[in-house]
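**User:** My hope is that you can spare some time for a protein that puzzles me. As I understand it, each token names a local backbone shape. I would be glad if you read both lines and explained how they fit together. The protein I mean follows directly.
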Amino acid sequence: MKSMTTIHPVLLCGGSGTRLWPLSRKSYPKQFARLTGEESLFQASARRLSGPGFAPPMVVTGGDFRFIVTEQLAGAEIAPAAVVIEPAARNTAPAILAAALMLAARDPEALMLVAPSDHVIPDAARFREAVQAAAPEALAGRIVTFGIRPERAETGYGWLELAHAPEAGFAPVPQPLVRFVEKPDAATAADLLASGRHLWNAGIFLFSVPAILAAFDAHAPGLLADARAAVEGAQADLGFTRLAPGPWGALPDISIDYAVMEKAPNLSVVPYGGVWSDLGGWDAVWRESHPDAAGVVAHGAATAIDCTNTLLRSEAGSLQLVGIGLDGIVAVAMPDAVLVAHKDRAQDVKLAVASLKKQGAAQAETFPRDHRPWGWFESLVVGQRFQVKRIVVHPGAALSLQSHHHRSEHWIVVEGTARVTIDGEQRLVTENQSVYIPLGAVHRMENPGKLPMVLIEVQTGAYLGEDDIIRYEDVYARGQGAKG
């Protein structure tokens, strides 16, 4: 039996969260959402790139997402090789370069597979076979990209031009890349589809560490010094690796395509004939959600009556979404925002986000569920001088020891048991019991159990902002004013 080459996956986990608003937002981009199955796109990506032939993944993400990343990896029972924190978003070229430099320190000849963490590839086994088929090319010093069999004249993707049509059945046989094609207009896309020699560009790459470092040296040498300084100055932080912010901030915002790929002469393409989508809009979610005979997808508490070619999605169990006589409509309901759009205008959702940002609406960027290293909370009711929250604390987790200048709190445990400390006095609060935290009291909440603990918090006071915290101790090493 032919032995497998070990591949080191690098999952890119950033994103602005605008194209699938309101489910995806800047504080909770689409890769963390369960859009097409029981797992998030990020979890499915990590699982797809694990098992025989794959080393543990390296994840490159932003500081705001680090605890979501570790929580979701734990939920998928995948231990990462590293979770690398970018001090600021700098696009794919700096992220890939930093990952290559870090991997070079451990395994200078390693093969690294760079993949976005928000793609849908249902046939994981077939994709892994394509990756292994590409490995000999990468070992020989080629930079390999994966071209997707096009299903339509898509204008939202870049394309790849091949010297000749892929082999029958889209066998994963590498061939040289002729050129990259920018996102085309409709007429050009139709020509590309008809040619039989053009594939969609998935933005997934396989290469050796020496090959990609040589490519940066040849085509984007200006990035190397600052990237090396950011990696050499990186600091360990609670199991994360934080790149040095000074040199990282000096790096340009540039994609790997513009920095390297469109200039490199040693590129190969491996065709992939399976299903693939980057879920770049609600129209793509509709397509990948297996519409019924009438073209209808109804997800969650949603009901379609005499509808066609329509997506109805309710993400709030208490909110019933009903569509009657709709055709070609996307309707997505969240607890704090509702989107209704024609499916043909799915790519314009970002206009709604921009408009809401101008209005100062929190819904533009902030997800209603706020994730923290210890769990999460969501606001249920907000009034003039009060707020009601649901708080979920993971088993064994603890909030910081803290006090507040402007509010008092009342906690009611509804699931599990809380260990509560108030001004040095500790007590256990079990289901259906409550405790009062006076204004200024030094307090902490912990979950000593093996199941999530859920409580309802009622805050009252003149100011209820998340920055009203004096923090005395914190197992997560957060500073004053940090949330949670």
Notes: The chain is about 20% helix and 30% strand. The radius of gyration is 24 Å. The domain at 369-473 is CATH 2.60.120.10 (Jelly Rolls). The longest strand covers residues 198-208.
